[in-house]
Amino acid sequence: MISFGILLASITLASAQNDTMYVMKNGVVINKQSVAPADIDSIIFFAPQVTALTDADGNVYGTVTIGTQVWMSENLKTTKFNDGADIPLVTGNSEWGSLTTPAYCWYNNDEETYKNLYGGYYTWYAVNTGKLCPEGWHVPTKDEWTTLINYLGGASVAGGKLKSTGTEYWNSPNTDATNESGFSGLPGSQRPNIFSSLGTNGRWWSSSEYTSISSHAYVLYHDEAVIRRNSSNRRYGLNVRCIKD
Question: pTM higher than 0.70 for the full model?
Answer without folding.
Answer: yes
